[in-house]
Specification:
The chain is built from 15 helices and 31 strands. With about 575 residues, it is of the alpha+beta class. Strands 3, 7, 8, 9, 10, 11, 12, 21 and 24 form a nine-stranded mixed β-sheet that branches. The chain has a five-stranded mixed β-sheet with strand order 16-14-15-17-20, with no helix packed on it. Strands 28-27-29-30-31 form a five-stranded mixed β-sheet, with helices on both faces. A hairpin with a 2-residue loop joins strand 1 and strand 2. Helix 2 runs antiparallel to helix 6. The structure holds adenosine-5'-triphosphate and magnesium ion (MG). The site of adenosine-5'-triphosphate has 16 residues, from strand 8, strand 21, strand 24 and helix 11.
C-alpha cells in the first residue's frame, strides 16, 4: 500500500484529553479519531489491526467448536424485562423509542438475545453442548468514557455464550474457553494475569478476569508474592498479616463522653490517642435496589469496620445478594435512622441490621458514636451492648495483607481488563425458560457460561504495553503492516522501481508493506515511521542505491543494518521470523 493512496494523518501533539500513552499514540498516529466522547472512528490502519485480532479470536474459538453468529444491536424492552435487567442495568443501558412508541435499548451485552436465539431450538439433551459467539458493537453509556478505546461508549466486543446440560459440562466448557483465552493473549505477546473477579451485573458464581498489567489500568489487583494467587481488589479476601489480639481481658462499663468537633476517625484518633485500627467506624447503606430507592421506604443497614479500614461495597453487595453495590445513606437519611449526624453515629440502640467486618470481631472495649451529636461511647462491646447480624469479610484488601493460599503477602498492581469468563449456571435459563428434555424425558434448565473480550480495548492495551518515547511498537500478530518503506526519492524512477520490486518480494511471504511515497523530508518520514510502529523499516533513497547500501531498522530494538540490495529481503524475513 502506498501512503498517498490511503488516508493516514499524523499529529505532532496529542490532544489534551489523551491522558495515557496508548491513547496519545493512537490519536497522534491517526489510527483513531474522536467523533464525540466515547465514540471513535477507526481509521484504515486501526481497522487492519482490529481485523487481525478478530481473526485470531476466530481461529482460537473455532478450535473449541464455537459457532459464529451476529445478533442485533437494537433490542426490544420486553426481552430485557424477562431478566429484570431493563431496570437493573441502570443508566448504562441506552434506551429510546421508535416512531411507534415502542421502547428499545442498544445492547450492552447479549445474554438475553442469545437465549432468545436458541431457546426454541435447543430442545433435547442431544442438541448440547453449544457455544455461540459474535464479534460486534456494544454500547454502554459509560459515565466517564476515557482513555480512547479503553473505555468507550461504543466499542467492539467478542462475546461467546455456552449451553450445557449440566454443571459438569458447563465447567468443562469454562475450562476450554479459559485455555482459549490464554492462547489468544499469548499470541499477542501480552503480559497478563488471570485474576479472581466479581460477576457484576452479569451474575454467576465462578469468574476470572484476564488483566494486562499496566500502570494506566483502571483495575486494582492484588497478587501474591509466593503463589499464583491474583485477585481483583473488588473480591480479594482481606486477611490481616498478624491477627489482632485485644489487650483487654474483661468488658468494662460503657461510658458516654463529649467529643465536640470530632467528626472523623482522624479527629477521634487525635482526641483520644487511640490508633485508628482500634477505633470502630459505622457506615450506613440502603438495601433498596432500583433506580429510585426513595420510591420505597428506606431499608437501611449498618456496616462496622476498624477505623483504619475501607469498606468494600462489592463484598457488601455479595453478602446481601444484592444486584448492585449498595448506596450510602445521605446525611439526612443517617439522621433519620440514628437520630444524629454522621460523625457521632454508632451501632448501639439501632433497629437495623448490623454487619461487621472480621477485623471488628476481636476488638473489645472500643469507642463508637453515641447517636447523639457531639458524643461518643467508650468501652462498647458487641454481644453485650448491641448485636451483630453477621460478621464477614467486608473490608478492602490492601498491600501487605496475607495471601489467602500461603504465608506470602499481597502486592498491588494496576490492570486493564481485556477479557472476562463467567460461569452463569441456570440464572438466565430460569428467567427465560431455557429448558430441554433430558435422557429420561424430564424437562431441565440448561447451564450457561459467557465469555467476553474487548476487541478494541485489547488492541489499545497492546500499545499501552508496547511503545517507547517515539511511538508504537506493534506486536507482529496484529500490526497493520509489517514493513514500512521510507521511500526518500519518490520522483526518481529507478528508486521507485526498486521499491516496487522489494515490496513484491516481501509480499511473497504474505508480509504486508506500507510505502511512504510522500514528498517529505527524510527526518519527517523517519519520525512518522517510528510513530506508526511497524516491526521493520527499510530506507530507500537514490544515494543509498548508488552506494548499494540500504538501511533496514528493527523498530523494537532500533538496531540498524546497512546492507547491499541483495541481502535486504533476507534480513527482513529474518527480522519477521520467517
Ligand atoms: P469494566 O469493568 O472495565 O467496565 P466490565 O467488567 O463491565 O468492564 P464485561 O461486561 O466483562 O466488562 O465485558 C467484557 C469485556 O468488554 C471486558 O473485559 C472489556 O475488555 C470490554 N469492555 C467492557 N466495557 C468496555 C468499554 N466501555 N470500552 C471498551 N471495552 C470495554
Ligand atoms: Mg468484566
Amino acid at each position: 500500500m502506498k501512503w498517498t493512496k490511503t488516508h493516514i494523518f499524523t499529529l505532532k501533539e496529542a490532544p489534551s484529553d489523551a491522558e495515557i500513552p496508548s491513547h496519545k499514540l493512537l490519536v497522534r498516529a491517526g489510527f483513531i479519531k474522536k467523533l464525540a466522547p466515547g465514540l471513535y472512528t477507526y481509521g484504515a490502519l486501526a481497522l487492519k489491526a482490529i481485523r487481525k485480532f478478530e481473526n485470531i479470536l476466530r481461529e482460537e474459538l473455532n478450535k473449541e467448536d464455537a459457532i459464529e453468529v451476529l445478533m442485533p444491536v437494537v433490542h426490544p424492552k420486553e426481552l430485557w424485562e424477562e431478566t429484570n435487567r431493563w431496570g437493573e442495568m441502570g443508566a448504562g443501558l441506552l434506551k429510546f423509542k421508535n416512531r411507534n412508541n415502542h421502547e428499545f435499548c442498544l445492547a450492552a451485552t447479549h445474554e438475553e438475545a442469545v437465549v432468545d436465539y436458541v431457546r426454541h431450538e435447543l430442545k433435547s439433551y442431544r442438541d448440547f453442548p453449544k457455544n455461540i459467539y459474535q464479534i460486534q458493537t456494544k454500547y454502554r453509556d459509560e459515565i466517564r468514557p476515557r482513555f480512547g478505546l479503553m473505555r468507550g461508549r461504543e466499542f467492539s466486543m467478542k462475546d461467546a455464550y455456552s449451553f450445557d446440560i449440566d454443571q459438569e459440562g458447563a465447567l468443562k466448557t469454562y475450562d476450554k474457553m479459559y485455555k482459549a483465552y490464554q492462547r489468544i493473549f499469548d499470541r499477542l505477546g501480552l503480559q497478563y494475569r488471570i485474576v479472581q473477579a466479581d460477576a457484576g451485573n452479569i451474575g454467576g458464581s465462578q469468574t476470572h478476569e484476564f488483566q494486562l498489567l499496566a500502570d494506566a489500568g483502571e483495575d486494582a489487583l492484588l497478587v501474591s508474592d509466593k503463589t499464583q494467587f491474583a485477585a481483583n481488589i473488588e473480591v480479594c479476601p482481606a486477611i490481616d498479616p498478624v491477627p489482632y489480639v485485644s489487650p483487654h481481658t474483661s468488658e468494662l462499663p460503657v461510658e458516654k463522653f463529649a467529643t465536640p468537633g470530632a467528626k472523623t476517625i482522624a479527629d477521634l484518633e487525635k482526641l483520644t490517642g487511640i490508633p485508628a485500627k482500634e477505633l470502630v467506624k459505622t457506615l450506613y447503606f440502603s438495601a433498596n435496589e432500583g433506580l429510585d430507592p426513595k420510591d420505597k421506604s428506606l431499608k437501611a443497614f449498618a456496616v462496622l469496620l476498624r477505623g483504619s479500614d475501607e469498606v468494600n461495597p462489592i463484598k457488601v453487595k455479595n453478602l446481601l445478594k444484592m444486584t448492585n453495590p449498595p448506596l450510602m445513606l445521605t446525611d439526612e437519611e443517617v439522621k433519620e435512622v440514628t437520630g444524629a449526624n454522621p460523625g457521632s453515629c454508632g451501632p448501639v440502640g439501632l433497629q437495623i441490621p448490623i454487619y461487621a467486618d472480621n477485623g471488628v470481631q476481636p476488638l473489645k472495649n472500643y469507642i463508637v458514636g453515641a447517636n447523639e451529636d457531639g458524643f461518643h461511647l467508650k468501652n462498647v462491646n458487641h454481644g453485650r451492648d448491641f448485636q451483630i447480624t453477621q460478621v464477614a469479610d467486608l473490608r478492602m484488601a490492601r498491600e501487605g495483607d496475607k495471601c489467602p493460599e500461603s504465608d506470602g503477602r499481597l502486592k498491588p498492581y494496576r490492570g486493564i481488563e481485556v477479557g472476562h469468563v463467567f460461569y452463569l449456571g441456570q440464572k438466565y435459563a430460569k428467567k427465560m425458560n431455557g429448558v430441554f428434555l433430558d435422557k429420561n424425558g424430564k424437562s431441565q434448565f440448561y447451564e450457561m457460561g459467557c465469555y467476553g473480550i474487548g476487541v478494541t480495548r485489547t488492541v489499545q492495551a497492546c500499545i499501552e504495553q508496547s511503545h517507547d518515547q517515539d511511538g508504537i511498537i506493534w506486536p507482529k500478530a496484529i500490526t497493520p503492516y509489517h514493513v514500512h518503506i521510507c521511500h526518500l526519492d519518490p520522483k526518481d524512477e529507478s528508486a521507485t522501481a526498486y521499491v516496487d520490486v522489494l515490496t513484491k518480494e516481501i509480499e511473497t511471504r504474505n508480509w504486508e508493506v506500507l510505502v511512504d511515497d510522500r514528498d517529505e523530508r527524510p527526518g519527517f518520514k523517519f519520525k512518522d515511521a517510528d510513530l506508526l510502529g511497524f516491526p521493520v523499516r527499510i530506507v530507500v533513497g537514490k544515494k543509498g542505491l548508488e552506494g548499494n547500501q540500504i538501511e533496514v531498522v528493527n523498530r523494537k530494538t532500533k538496531e540498524v543494518f546497512k546492507l547491499p540490495k541483495e541481502a535486504v529481503v533476507q534480513k527482513v524475513f529474518e527480522l519477521l521470523g520467517n
